[in-house]
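Dear Dr. L.,

I hope this message finds you well. Following up on our conversation about the binding site, I have prepared a predicted three-dimensional model of the protein together with 6-O-phosphono-beta-D-fructofuranose. For your records, I am including the exact sequence and ligand specification that went into the calculation, followed by the structure tokens. Please feel free to forward this to your student if that is useful.
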Amino acid sequence: MAKKPKRIGILTAGGDSPGLNAAIRGVGKTALGYGMEIIGIRDGFRGLVENRRLKLDKSTLAGILTVGGTILGTSRDKPHRMVIDGRTRDMTKVIIDHYHEWGLDCLVCLGGGGTQKNALRLHEAGLNVITLPKTIDNDVAMTDATFGFATALDIATETIDRLHSTAHSHHRIIVAEIMGHRSGWLALGAGIAGGADVILIPEIPYDVEKIAEAIKRRSRNGTNFSIVAVAEGAMSRDDARALLAAEKKLERAKTLHDKKEAKVELATLEVRHAGNTMRLAKHLEELTQLESRVTILGYVQRGGTPSAADRVLATRLGSAAADLINEGHYGVMVAARGDGTEAVPLERVAGKRKCVPPDHSWVQAARRVGTCLGD
Ligand code: F6P
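The resulting structure of the complex is given below.
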């Protein structure tokens, strides 16, 4: 019979998101119930390298359910490419050694897409690993939802609500930039819930003329203000084409020189993209003759106390993770599936992204109520 797990390590990695502490508590309290010992690892995978940890017991786990951020700290460090004393190094072996030295029976990693990949690497290197899906972007594959998303959705929606009255008073276009580099769930959800007139997401490249036409149509019908909800990663059809070409070039590149050239092209496009929301607002102002303003929601979307929905989701995923650990079931992500949970092998999650299907019911509903999607 497999050895019963006695001591587990838990870490949070990638960008923080509301609900992380609720998940730590969910894993921790359930695991304590099984008689396990829980070691909290500080600042993501870096804490495992630098031997930074704290014991999580009943008292440290108390009172954290409603607290934003992560009591453990987080970082975007990758085990196989970590900057140590100014040099990028593969720290996988150090992590494995510390895992064994600390007497861990399992490592629980709470994170988004990048963390799922890193967790799989460690699992393939021989560690018992289990993950939970968190990110405000809601773009982790194979799960109905990620914790953090519901809270961010509430915050972004409230912001759009507030922008309406000022846009209305000043007869302006207000372009609200919402987080989501590669996926548009947050902008789409908040745009629908907040009644944005235009919603732009990375999955549906836009034509600025079409957006301007929708705004002018509103003006002709007597409504001379508009709210545009734009995801960070939304881009015009031309930019999307250029990005695709550069990505293909990188894929096809055989020589070091070609690879370098394609990478420079990609980086140039990314730098250009950084000012996209400002450029879009200016362009719409020119095309519609309506004054425009930009509001970048930024990190308020990730900060603060988690919503009730995220607390529930994080608690049930966390406690399901402890159940799986107790059964010795590793190498999986605990996914939300309907009212239940499902253990999905990490190979099926890592390296995949859940994007908004262009014919998704949210997209269809937005179109049905007359929202312009920019295409
Ligand atoms: O992955 C979550 C996310 O909040 C994205 O929506 C956003 O683009 C990114 O993280 C910001 O990352 P950082 O915290 O590294 O600035």
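In brief: The domain at 7-147+306-348 is CATH 3.40.50.450 (Rossmann fold).

With kind regards,
A. P.
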